[in-house]
């Protein structure tokens, strides 16, 4: 597996991963299909150098994007193609993002976690720190100490 900084040319492949990963969760599928605008990956993370992509066998199989919002550094996106899950790709992407932010002096990485992914986030070292209101309901807020 190769993890590298994504580039704007990765948008098509990342969009495919985003859509297939999002729709693979039965608990989210109906809401997402009712709001197809949420299945469109914006180009900003790739264009601004905030997205890392994972490649396996020459294919983009996952990506993670961070964002700074109101002084907080957040894991904005973390998606792995359903056919490539449970191979350490998501964990490697989180590690890569954490390393890149640590170099910038960032101490904490936060995430509004999909409730279906809590096990992953806890295994990755995130701890609960509150709740957030999303368009689809309340979701856990979690934090990973990286500094």
What does this protein look like?
- This protein is an alpha+beta fold.
- It has one domain (2-145): 3-Layer(aba) Sandwich (Aminopeptidase).
- It contains five helices and seven strands.
Topology:
Layout: E1 2-5, H1 11-23, H2 26-34, H3 44-47, E2 51-56, E3 59-69, E4 72-80, H4 89-103, E5 108-112, H5 118-123, E6 127-134, E7 137-145
Antiparallel strand pairs: 1-2, 2-3, 3-4, 5-7, 6-7
Task: Summarize the entry for a quick read.
This protein has 147 residues and is α+β, with helices and mostly antiparallel strands. Helix content is 32%, strand content 35%.
Main attributes of the structure:
147 residues, alpha+beta, Aminopeptidase, 5 helices, 7 strands
What global shape is seen? globular
Main sheet strand line-up: 1-2-3-4
- Gyration radius over CA: 14 Å
Mean pLDDT: 95
Using the coordinates shown, work out and report the CATH topology.
Aminopeptidase
- The secondary-structure class comes to alpha+beta
Low-pLDDT parts are none
- Count helical runs: 5
Order of helices and strands: EHHHEEEHEHEE
How many separate structural domains? 1
Look at the structure and give the CATH class. Answer: Alpha Beta
The major sheet is characterized as:
4 strands, antiparallel
> Roughly what percent helix?
25-40%
Report strand %: 35-45%
- Total number of beta strands: 7
CATH superfamily: Gcn5-related N-acetyltransferase (GNAT)
Oligomer: single chain
- End-to-end gap: 26 Å
The CATH architecture assignment turns out to be: 3-Layer(aba) Sandwich
